[in-house]
Write a structure and sequence with these properties.
The protein has 111 residues and is mainly α. Helices cover 59% and strands 5% of the residues. The protein has five helices and two strands. α4 packs across α5. The relative contact order is 0.16.
């Protein structure tokens, strides 16, 4: 009985984290990367966003690199900001757990 309750609690917690990650995606990422992750928004096209629905693109992205990009942001070769950092202290802060959940959410976009 206790094991069953623990399993339901874990499922609820994972569902809540998944919903929170989707909310963070919709709020912070979709403007450029698109709600579906294709990166074909006006801003995404301008910035050269990758298509996260593409399995080949997903295979080329390592979790630690994705975490670093979200945490530190991305700059072009000529030092222009492509993506601002989304960590505590930024305009829209994310915790380390929220960053990991966001990376996990990006993985669900693969077709």
């Amino acid at each position: 009985m206790i094991l069953l309750a623990a399993m339901f609690g874990l499922t609820a917690a994972l569902t809540a984290k998944g919903a929170e990650a989707k909310d963070n995606w919709d709020t912070l990422c979709a403007k450029c990367h698109g709600a579906d992750g294709k990166g074909d928004t006006k801003m995404g096209t301008r910035l050269g966003c990758k298509d996260f629905t593409d399995a080949t693109v997903q295979a080329g992205i390592k979790d630690d690199s994705a975490i670093k990009a979200i945490t530190d942001g991305l700059k072009s070769d000529d030092d222009k900001t492509l993506m601002k950092p989304f960590v505590t202290g930024a305009d829209t802060p994310l915790t380390a757990d929220e960053v990991k959940a966001l990376v996990a959410y990006v993985r669900t976009l693969k077709k």
